[in-house]
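Hi R.,

As promised on Friday, here is the backbone we talked about, encoded as C-alpha cells. Could you run it through your design pipeline when you get a chance and send me back a sequence?
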C-alpha cells in the first residue's frame, strides 16, 4: 500500500512540480522557482495520492464475482467517453473487459469489450506526460482509461488475448 501511495504521489507530483518550477522560475528567478516547484510538486503529489487511496477504498468492488464470471483483475478507473472522463470500476474477466460507471457521471452507460474484439492493450500517457493511461485498441477503434498499474493491466489483457488465441 505504501509503495502504491508513493508511486501515485511521484507520478502526479513530479510533472506538476516541474511545470510549476518552470513557471515560478520565470517569474521569481531560478532558485526560488526550484524551491517553490519542489514544494508544490510534493504537496500536489501527496494530496493526489491520499485522494486516490480514499477513492479506491470508497469504490472497491462489493463482491469477488462479476456478473457470474471470474474476476482476473479489477480496480478504479476513468474512461474517456466523448469529452467526459467517467469515473468508475474496470474489471477483466476471461471473456471481456468491463467498465462500470460509479453513477455520478453524465454518461453512465456500461462498457463491455469482448476479448475477441481487442487487437492490443498498451500502457499510455494521459495528456502525453502522465504515466497512468491504458489504451485498448479494438478492431473498431480505441478506448482510453486512466488506471493504476497500467503495465499490469496491459500485461494481463495481453495474456488473456494470447490464451484465447491458443484455444
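Update: got your reply. Pasting your designed sequence below so it's all in one thread:
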Amino acid at each position: 500500500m505504501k509503495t502504491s501511495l508513493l508511486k501515485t504521489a511521484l507520478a502526479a507530483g513530479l510533472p506538476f512540480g516541474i511545470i510549476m518550477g518552470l513557471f515560478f522560475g520565470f517569474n521569481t528567478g531560478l532558485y526560488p522557482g526550484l524551491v517553490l516547484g519542489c514544494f508544490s510538486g510534493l504537496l500536489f503529489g501527496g494530496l493526489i495520492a491520499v485522494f486516490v487511496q480514499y477513492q479506491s477504498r470508497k469504490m472497491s468492488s462489493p463482491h469477488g464475482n462479476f456478473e457470474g464470471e471470474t474476476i482476473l483483475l479489477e480496480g478504479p478507473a476513468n474512461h474517456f467517453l466523448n469529452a467526459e472522463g467517467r469515473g468508475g470500476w474496470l474489471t477483466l474477466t476471461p471473456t471481456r473487459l468491463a467498465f462500470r460507471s460509479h453513477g455520478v457521471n453524465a454518461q453512465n452507460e456500461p462498457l463491455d469489450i469482448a476479448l475477441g474484439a481487442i487487437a492490443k492493450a498498451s500502457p499510455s500517457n494521459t495528456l502525453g506526460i502522465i504515466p497512468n493511461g491504458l489504451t485498448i485498441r479494438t478492431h473498431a477503434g480505441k478506448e482510453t482509461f486512466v488506471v493504476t498499474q497500467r503495465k499490469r493491466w496491459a500485461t494481463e489483457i495481453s495474456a488473456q488475448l494470447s490464451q484465447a488465441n491458443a484455444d
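One thing I noticed while checking it: The mean pLDDT is 83.

Thanks again,
M.
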